[in-house]
Amino acid sequence: MKFCQITTEFPAIYDEPLHKFLRRYRRCVGNPIGSDVSFVFDRQSRLLAHKVFLRLFSEHFGQELGKNKGLKYFEIDGEVIQVESFIDFLKLLYNGFDPMGFNPKMDPAALLVCAVEFQDSGLIDMMSKSNSFSENNVAQIYLAGKQKQLVSIMKSAERFIESQFESIVRDEALLKEWDEDLLKHFTEALSGPFEDWCGFANWLDVLWFGHHTKNADLRKAAAQNLQGLINVENVIGIITAAHTAGEKELRSACVTFLVVHGMNVEEYQRMQSKQGGFKIGDLSQSVRVEVEGRVKATVKDLHQLKKEEITKVGFLQRRKQTCSLCKRVLQKEQLSKKQVPAVFGPPKKLKPVCKSCDQLTLLLGDTESSTTTTTTIQ
Question: How far is Cα of residue 328 from the mean position of the Cα atoms in its chain?
Fold first, then answer.
C-alpha cells in the first residue's frame, strides 16, 4: 500500500484576523454546549463555562485547573463580585482580552475588581490601552486604578485625558466626576510653565478648565493671555468662553474685534460650516446689544468730525467723491452707493460709502435684520 503526502485543510475562518476569530467565542459564555466547569455565586446561582478558554487565556484559573484537572466548579463571593460584572469579565477573557472586545457599556471599575481579585494581568494590560477609555469612563477607570494601586492604569488614564483635553474640559459634568488627585495633577500641570503643557492644551482650554473647576487664578491668567491671541479663527470660541466664565474684559476685546473684522469672521465661519455659516445676529441678545452700541458710537464719532478736517472737492477733483459717513475724499472707484441702516440717520437715497464704512453698515445691518435671537452664548 502506497502512502501519499496528506495535507490538512483549514476552514476559511482561520484566515480571519485574530480579534474577529476570538470575538465569536464571547457567545459561549454561559452556553451549556461543551460546558465542563461552572462558577457558583454564594451557592445560589451558577454560570456555565469551558475549561479550554480558562486554560488558554486566564493565568489564575489556568493554574487552578492545572493543579486539579477534575475540578468541576469555582466558588465566587457575590458580595465582592457581581454576576453581571463577572459575565463581562468572562466575555473579555473568552475574547483573549483583545481591546476590540471592550464594550463601552461595561463597568470598568467592576472589571478591575475582577482583575485584582483573580490576579489576571491580561485584563489589566487591556484596560491600560486607549481603546478601553472614553470621555465618560476615564474618571471611573482612574479612580478604580487608584483604589487598587494600579499605577499603569492611572498613567494611561492621564494620557487619554491629555489626548482628549479640548473636549473634556468643555463639559462641566465630566470634570465633576474627577478624583481629587486627578484634578490636582492637571491643576499643577497647567499652573506651570507654558512649555510643559502646551503639547495637550491651549489658553482657551485653560479658561474652560479654570471656570469649571472654580480656579480663579487659572481663569484670570488664561483671560489675560487670550486678549492678545484673538483672531478670525478663534474669536467665536473665545467670546463664548468669556461670556460663560464672566470675563468681561476679554468679552469686550472680542466684541471690538467683531466690530472691526465682522465680515472676515462671518466668511471664515461660512467656509467652516455646511449650514450657511455664522452671523453676528446669531449671538446672544446681550452681545448683540454691545456690538450695536459699539457701531453706533463709531458712527457718531464719524459724524462729529470738524469741518476744517474735511477735504473739500475742488475743480481738479471732480473725479473724486466724499464718503457720506467718514467724509474722506476718495476716487469714485473706491466708493459704492449703499442703502445704509437707520442708525446712520433717516433712510434716503443711495449714498456713496467707502469700503471701510461699508463693513460697518453690513455688520449693523445683520444685527438689525435678525428678528429672532439664537442663543449661542448662554
Answer: 48
H-assigned helices in 273-339: 285-303
E strand spans, 94-215 = none
Residues 6+ apart with CB under 8 A from 275: none
Separation between Cα atoms, residue 341 and residue 303, nearest integer Å: 15
Q: At 49, is the secondary structure helix, strand, or coil?
A: strand
Instruction: Quote the CA–CA distance of 20 and 100 in Å, as a whole number.
Output: 9
Q: CA Rg, the chain, in Å?
A: 34
How would DSSP label each residue in 145-177? HHHTT-HHHHHHHHHHHHHTHHHHTT-HHHHHT
- 8 A C-beta contact, residue 217 and residue 210: yes
CA distance 32 to 41: 17
Q: Residue 139 pLDDT more than 80?
A: yes
DSSP 8-state symbol, 373: -
Report yes or no on whether pTM surpasses 0.85. no
In contact, 206 and 190? CB cutoff 8 Å: yes
Q: Closest Cα partner for 341 from 321, 322, 358?
A: 358
* CA-based nearest residue to 86, from 132, 54, 56: 54
pLDDT tens digits for range 153-184: 899 899 999 999 999 999 999 999 999 999 99
How do residues 183-218 score in pLDDT, each as one tens digit? 999 999 999 988 888 889 999 999 999 999 999 999
Can you state the angle between helices 138-147 and 108-117, rounded to 10 degrees?
30
Residue 326: strand, helix, or coil: coil
- DSSP for residue 187: H
Q: Which residues pair with 37 in a beta bridge?
A: 49
The residue with cell 482628549 is 164
**224-251 pLDDT, tens per residue?**
999 999 988 888 889 889 988 989 899 8
* Amino acid at position 277, single letter: G
Residue 310 cell numbers, joined: 474735511
In the three-class reduction of DSSP (H, G, I as helix; E, B as strand; rest coil), residue 306 is classed as coil
Dist. CA 288–CA 362, nearest whole Å? 14
Q: What does the pLDDT look like over 252-297, one tens digit per residue?
A: 888 888 877 777 777 777 777 654 555 555 556 666 666 666 666 6
Rounded distance, CA 367 to CA 103, Å?
48
Q: What is the dihedral of CA 31, 34, 37, 40, to 10 degrees?
A: 20
